[in-house]
Amino acid sequence: MMDVFLYTSMKSFIQFLESKNFMESSNFILDGLIKKVKEEYDDTSMLILADYLETIGRAEDSQAIRNNVENKEEPPQVVIAQVLGETLPRMSKNHLYYEMVNFLTKTMRRTHGEVDDFAIEAAIKWFACDHHEGQGSDLYSVCSTSEYKPGYGINSIEDEEDDVQDLYHDLVFEYDYADRHKYTYNIEDLDSD
Q1: Count of CB atoms within 10 A of residue 140's CB?
Q2: Scanning 9, 74, 139, 165, which has its CA 20 to 30 A from the CA of 65?
Q3: Is residue 63 classed as helix, strand or coil in its secondary structure?
Q4: Residue 56's closest CA among 34, 74, 86?
Q5: By the 8 A CB rule, do 65 and 53 touch?
Q6: Cα(96)–Cα(81) distance, rounded to whole angstroms?
Q7: How confident is the prediction along the chain (193 residues), in pLDDT tens digits per residue?
Q8: How far apart are CA 135 and CA 174, in angstroms?
Q9: CA-based torsion, 9, 14, 18, 22: positive or negative
């Protein structure tokens, strides 16, 4: 009697897996996981996506994500785009660009609760253009391939909105350019409230 129950249960489960409802629900689950990964590209959500890809038979894609989480050979955006068959608009960008996007995305989420991609692009453009060390540098590559074009009357970071300036200064301090360029401060210059 137990064998009949087990057989019937397994047969029903296999029929469910082959059904349109399962395919739609698995696509829904996959879309949700991908959305979560693309919000922050953190290791935990990437590993959860890898687990799910493995359970739906995409072991090779799962392993590609796991390898990258472990070895950090490629920016996570590049790996996810390759796994999903997507084309990133900036595949020519280097690791530093994606690193700065990740850093500023997390910074904006923490400080503002939401992400402004335009402000991030503007801050990265000004930072890269202000701090590159010549044509062979990663920052020069970021500066010269940026899609951000300043509007009329915006000639420097000081002309940008406050949120762009804040992100720019976050990059200055994150990448320790404060000591190498004009961004050093004297303690006397700070307000003592």
Answers
A1: 16
A2: 139
A3: helix
A4: 34
A5: yes
A6: 17
A7: 555 555 565 556 555 555 555 555 567 777 777 777 777 777 788 888 888 888 888 889 889 888 888 887 777 777 787 887 776 655 456 778 888 888 888 888 888 888 888 999 999 999 999 888 888 888 888 888 888 888 888 888 999 999 999 999 999 988 876 544 443 333 344 344 4
A8: 22
A9: positive
Distances (CA, A) of 131 to 139, 141, 160: 7, 12, 17
Residue labelled with tokens 């939401």: 114
Residue 129: exposure state from Cβ atoms within 10 A (0-12, 13-18, ≥19): middle
Closest CA to 143 of 181, 103, 178, 96: 96
Please state, in angstroms and as integers, the Cα–Cα distance from residue 115 to each residue in 107, 112, 123, 127, following that order. Answer: 9, 7, 13, 18
User: Which residue has tokens 């500023």?
Assistant: 104
Please give the single-letter amino acid code of residue 161. Answer: E
Q: Are 162 and 155 in contact (CB under 8 A)?
A: no
Which tokens belong to 95?
A: 């690791």
Q: Are 148 and 128 in contact (CB under 8 A)?
A: no
Question: What b/e string do you get for 93-110 counting C-beta neighbours within 10 Å, with b at 16 or more?
Answer: beebbbebbbbbbebbee
